[in-house]
Amino acid sequence: MVMSVRGVIAATLLAGSALAATPAFADEADAPKDFTVTGNVALTTDYRFRGVSLSNGDPAIQGGITVSHKSGVYVSTWSSSIHGGDLYGDQELDLIAGWTGGLGSSGLTLDAGMLYYAYPSGHVGDANYWEPYASLAYSVGPAKLKAGVAYAWKQKGLLTIDGYHHDNLYVYGNVDVAIPNTPVTVSGHLGYTDGVLAPCYTCNGDKTGIDYSIGASMTVYGPLSVGVSYIGVSGPSIDSYTNDAVVGTLTASF
After folding, report:
1. Which fold has domain 31-253?
2. Residue ranges of the domains in the chain?
3. Is-contact 116 94, C-beta < 8 A?
4. What predicted TM-score, i.e. pTM, was given to this entire model?
């Protein structure tokens, strides 16, 4: 949710929609050149959000569309099937708006924005919530380094077990290394949660937790890519929820 996240997938493809606006007084023939539309659909063996399964350990289907302007501003929507019970239902829908671009000659790339998590098929309570985010990325040879933070303030949609609303802080680091002369990229991730979205907050009240993953991905044909990751979290191992898992994903990008 990164996968996001905010960054895995089960049953019916969840379509996304995006809005694009034409600049005032612009030549209509030139306007499309200012925008780029990208998207993807994916099938994964387990949708893991910050290490925790939101699909009850089952496969999930995901898809998203992003419209980007040459200024760096973008809007995006992403959705996944889930097993969320009465509160969350069977669909997660993320609405995202942000800006990304280089910071002068530093070599750093900033990505910052706001993410809204919605659960349209939930019918008990209100699980929707907002989460602003920011990250910095830097490339060193074949390696891309990234550090990010996301903070959800106290709000109605954040789950509580003591009758009070709580906030949530998530910080993380990623490294992706493209293996020279191959289509393979090796990736590592380490994240730390402090708050109501901690991996074991609902199982034992622990408000902090660590998630981690290591994996590899490769392009297999045209827009198709495959990936496999070993994913885990700190705390008790609960089957189909917080247990360590090997997750495979097939993605088609456009």
Report:
1. Porin (2.40.160)
2. 31-253
3. yes
4. 0.85
